[in-house]
Design goal:
The protein is mainly α. Among the domains are: 42 residues; 57 residues. The protein is built from 6 helices and no strands.
């Protein structure tokens, strides 16, 4: 079945059934028998939550709760700057000195260069180990009388 709109009197009937304590399944079965309409349980819950229709209006007005918004902290003004200054002062006390921005940036750049140099050294060491192992394999093959050509290496 397609979309079926319930009349205001049918919605009132569903509200009365629910007030009497009937389950949504019983309400749905009654609507199926009486009006030959399939009314799902979610729609019954929706109808029960709506305000009843006003007299003289065709469309019932739904009960819409007022939206509640979160209260956000104010991030501008002198209070915000005071919080930042307190944080800076706490860091200065912990370090014992104030570090200029230029020095902090240069220290970070030096640290990144050291990390890059470390990784380069590790990969060079691994490359040398691979070359040594390759040399051992060639020597073992040569001692066994097996000739290894460049075509064998490329495969």
């Amino acid at each position: 079945m397609g979309y079926q709109k319930l009349a205001p009197n049918q919605e009132d009937q569903i509200r009365r059934f629910r007030e009497e304590g009937k389950s949504p399944k019983e309400c749905s079965d009654h609507m199926k028998e009486t009006y030959d309409m399939d009314v799902p349980a979610w729609k019954i819950s929706y109808i029960v939550g709506k305000k009843p229709a006003k007299k003289g209006s065709r469309i019932p007005s739904p009960l819409i709760p007022k939206r509640k918004y979160k209260k956000h902290l104010k991030r501008s003004g002198p209070d915000h700057l005071v919080d930042n200054n307190k944080a800076i002062e706490a860091i200065e006390k912990e370090l014992g000195m104030r570090v200029p921005v230029e020095q902090a940036v240069s220290d970070i750049a030096k640290g990144l260069e050291q990390i890059f140099a470390g990784y380069t050294a590790i990969f060079m060491q691994l490359r040398l180990l691979v070359i040594k192992e390759k040399g051992k394999v060639f020597n073992m093959a040569k001692a066994a009388g097996i000739e290894i050509t460049e075509e064998d290496i490329q495969e």
